[in-house]
Amino acid sequence: MSMSMSYPFFVFLFLSFLSLSLSQQFPRGHLIDCGATAKSVIDGREWLPDDGFISAGTSKNVTIPGVAPTLSTVRSFPLQNNLRRKFCYVARVYRGARYLIRTTYYYGGVNGLSFPSPPVFDQIVDGTFWSVVDTTEDYQKGLSSYYEAVFEARGNTMSVCVTSNTYTESDPFISSLEMLILGDSLYNTTNFSSYALRLVSRSSFGHNESIIRYPDDQFDRVWEPYDENVYVVAGNKTPPVSGFWNIPPSKVFKRALSTAQLEPLQLRWPNFSLPNSTYYIALYFADNSDSMASSSRVLDIHINDVIYYGNLNVTSDGAAVFATRWNLSGPTKITLRAAATSNISPLINAGEIFDVLHLGGRTHTRDVRALEEIKNSLRNYPLDWNGDPCLPLSYSWTGVTCSKGDRIRVTALNLTSMDLSGSLSPSIANLTALSDIWLGNNSISGVIPDLSSLKQLQILHLEDNQLNGDIPSSLGDIGSLRELFLQNNNLTGRIPDSLAGRPGLNLKTSGNLFLSPPPS
Q1: Sheet architecture: strand order including 306-313
Q2: b/e map 277-296, b = 16+ CB within 10 Å
Q3: Beta-strand relationship, 436-438 and 410-414
Q4: Cβ partners under 8 Å of residue 498, min gap 6
Q5: Of the candidates 444, 484, 430, the residue with the CA atom closest to the CA atom of residue 461
Q6: Beta strands 466-469 and 443-446: pairing type?
Q7: CA 140 → CA 103, 265, 489, distances in Å?
Q8: What's the rounded Cα separation, in Å, for the pair 72 and 392?
């Protein structure tokens, strides 16, 4: 196994703790109880039903007795013809704020006896692939599964989506969604305009009991106990953490992992093999034992036998050491050795490790707004028309084709025979990269909007609808247009001279109410 450090890492030592009253306010953000039909209050915090955040899917009850309230319902999404359709929760957020996003899943057999095991599917935030959701192992143990990530809001809404993939065998689902604002100082060495952080593991090494989270952690991060049977040191005092990097909860410093003598302390953490990737690693230390004043606890830290940090002096003031970009692959071993100047054994309190995710792009803002206006003017639009229209590219909206590269534009709309009704919004003219529009065989009514701004449009199919009014003469201004199908509508007036008999244009207009006949 090989690894290298792409960027320098930093150590933060602080000499005094400031008094800070933590956990007096609930974390701000959204607590969404998926599939629920009413608000609920759990441990003093209000959970909202999800119908204000998503319009697709079906609410289902989990019939297994004794489950937690937020696991008693799910929202389930239809798996159809193995298509990669995404279903997105869209929430209002504060642009530029950093959000902890946590999704929780408990299957409960909601897909029926034919599917005893949970489906495996994907989850996405905005245009970025987050992770595969595979809850099979936890579910077999009677446990729910959760996933955490840290994303920065890049607009005034954020979408969290579940989506089927080729390995999905039954309907995807979700039990709960949390979107909580983190403090500006947390993980702030990460460039969140280009990256996000996907949680791999967050552990309180001295604890082997219940998890630590809110109210002990003011941001409601989940700190899991560490199950390895190693020597634990309990402290007689708990430091406040107002000045601590990333503000871990004080409770993680009550107990620490250590060794009885000066021998090295080795951790297999996380306790599973990691894929080859770049990781953010943060380790937290504080010496709260009753060591003699003359004692010196100085550590050398290695990860997979590569020096991570040397001569770290751990005192009751505490220390945090983190690497922003560290390559790992396979099993991970952390070794703490007493340095030559140390006369007491090494210890460690807590740690976090995140996979550093490259953000996907974003569909051009003008195109997103145009598609939203089109959606609002249509009825019976596709169920997956939520979230980013184009990204990830393999999960674009039904009927939407997009360009690749740095500037993501919508290049084609194909909603033929989709049982659409309503009208065609004039905002379609803002999709200026369109080359193809296929809207035939629906029940769209109203007039044909001015499309003269679509300078790249080659194909316009509006046949077999209920459109009325005149054919806009401005269609003749689109020099690239080579196929215009308008037959079987309720169009009136005359066919514009700019279209009638135009060389190279395949024009079909039969089955309308024109005052003059179509060109022969």
Answers
A1: 265-268, 333-338, 298-303, 306-313
A2: ebbbbbbbbbbbbeeeeeeb
A3: parallel
A4: 473, 475, 476, 477
A5: 484
A6: parallel
A7: 19, 33, 57
A8: 31
Q: Which backbone phi and psi does 391 adopt, to 5 degrees?
A: -120, 150
Query: pLDDT tens-digit profile of 221-257?
Result: 999 998 775 666 666 556 555 567 899 998 998 888 8
Instruction: Report the distance separating Cα 106 and Cα 36, nearest Å.
Output: 14
Burial of 454: CB neighbours in 10 Å, binned 0-12, 13-18, 19+: buried
DSSP 8-state assignment for residue 441: S
Instruction: Give the gyration radius of the chain's Cα atoms.
Output: 29
Q: How many CA atoms lie within 13 A of 149 on its CB side?
A: 26
How many other β-carbons are positioned within 10 Å of the β-carbon of residue 248?
28
- What pLDDT, on a 0 to 100 scale, did the predictor assign at position 255? 87
> Which residue type occupies 9?
F
Interior angle at CA 419, CA 415 and CA 423, nearest 5: 75
Q: Contact, 252 vs 30, CB < 8 A?
A: no
Instruction: Write out pLDDT tens, residues 182-218.
Output: 988 899 999 999 999 999 999 999 887 789 999 999 9
Look-up of token digits 């402290």:
235
| 182-191 residue pLDDT tens | 988 899 999 9
Non-local CB neighbours of 492 within 8 Å, separated by 6+ positions: 468, 469, 470, 512, 513, 514, 515
Q: Is the peptide bond before 172 cis (omega within 30 degrees of 0)?
A: no
Is residue 244 within 8 Å of residue 281, measured between CB atoms?
no
Instruction: Say if residues 421 and 442 touch (Cβ distance below 8 Å).
Output: yes
pLDDT per residue as tens digits for the range 16-43: 332 333 334 678 999 999 999 999 999 8
Q: Which of 357, 305, 350, 301 is nearest to 330 (CA)?
A: 305
Q: Amino acid identity, residue 91?
A: A
Tokens of 375: 């959606």
For 6, the token pair is: 């792409």
Residues 460-465 have a mean pLDDT of 98
Q: Which helix (H) or strand (E) holds 334?
A: strand 333-338
SS3 384: coil
Between 463 and 10, name the one with better pLDDT: 463
Cα–Cα nearest to 197, from 272, 113, 128: 128
CA distance 180 to 100: 5
CA 388 to CA 405: how far, in whole Å? 16
